[in-house]
Amino acid sequence: MVGLSDIPSVGKLVDRISNAAVDAIFRGFRYMFCYKDLVKTLDSQVEKANTEEERVSTKVAAERANGELIKPHVDKWQKEAEEIKESAHKFAEKYKNRHSCRCIQCVPIPNPVSRFRLGREAVQKTERLTELINSGKELLANEIAHLAPGENLPKTNTEFQEFQSRKYAYVELWHALITESSPVLGIYGMPGVGKTRMMEQLWKDAEEKKIFNKVTRGNVGNEKLDVIHLQKQIAGHLDCNFVSEDNVESRASQLKQSLLNAGKTLVILDDVWREIPLDVIGIPFGDGNKEKVCLSNKCQTLVKITPLQSDEAWDQFKNIVNSAQIDSMHDESLAKKVCDKCGGLPLLIQAISKALQFETHNSWVDALEQLEKGEFVNIPGVEPQVYACVELSINKLHGDAKSCLFLCSLFDEDADIPMSKLIQLATGSHLVSGILGKLGYYQWLILSDRLLCCSIPKKMIVSNFMMSSEM
């Protein structure tokens, strides 16, 4: 007689069902009779999970100390590890207070349901812990963090001031930037008039308004053109890492491709004193490319920055010197004459007003006389009044401040000089006396103010001063 099991397809189904039923029965018996061993296995996995979590936490702390951002899946693993460990801890408490036996007339009888549940839960939590441990090992075998993307915004010690006389120039430049078909545009003006600050504001606004995919900048300078250094500056804002360290042609080709890949790009070249070969540097322009080059000198589209108007210059001068200081001299006309000698140039106004900020009336008279009757050195490209103001601002610096200024001249042009580095060099070279305590701290506050470091937070000066004092 033929049964259902003799039919091939039905026979396979019956075998599977019977095997599953047998497996379930054996698992149930294992849960009930081996629950203590299963709990011991769980305890062992908890210890391994603790060790693995400690290894991951140590590596995470090290990466954070290096200034890197932890990847999201690593944070997720740590949260999951905490949840599983907490669940295992609650199970351990429940196991200690278990009732695996029932008492019938003071005779303990095993409770199969309680033992089954304990054994099954122990196995489930052991499996989760095993998966957690394996995934933790996989995490440690790969990168768990990455560097934070740099903030592509200009870093400056002074704010861009929107003088009424500059508003038209900036609006004209911005209009040319977003509408002109010319790929090259820029601004020009005498040294100290504020070209760099306007460039930085242009960079900031272009970033915030997202009219370009990328904004990058390089400082050309008035020395011999350093193509490799300029390429490095531009590539730094594009996250472009050069394959070659010294091959100009190879770097130019890579930089050009990086700019093309970025799409619509603004390249700001500041302090341009001569004709520069954009193709040699690796800056594509023309031929339908989406790049725009903004220069601070001769360009196809020019926007001139003029000096401040007299009332704007006087307002800035008074704000720095302090109106109360000027009133205390009882000679406002003297201060106005000194201000006029700055020619409406913001940089000179800043320097002269800082130099005379706490000086006596006689010092102001002497300063005006130097500006009017001093002998000037003829330097190509530098106006005599500019030279006179710069010379006066340096001469008015006291010994320590002047020494720090000369130390600054040892750095590259337009270098971002950390205050901590300047303090270390000044005290280490004995150019500035290493006075400790409150007196030393206030001396550094005065020095930083004299050197136009007016936007450096006092907390930073305190921490840097304490660090140099401990050396």
TrEMBL record:
User: Know the name of this protein?
Assistant: NB-ARC domain-containing protein
Q: What's an example GO BP annotation here?
A: defense response
**GO molecular function annotation:** ADP binding; ATP binding
> Is RNA-binding one of the keywords?
no
Residues annotated as domain NB-ARC? 172-325
Q: Which organism is it from?
A: Daucus carota subsp. sativus (Carrot)
Which terms are listed as keywords in the entry?
ATP-binding, Leucine-rich repeat, Nucleotide-binding, Plant defense
Record keyword Membrane present: no
Query: Which InterPro entries is this protein grouped with?
Result: Apaf_helical, NB-ARC, P-loop_NTPase, Plant_NBS-LRR
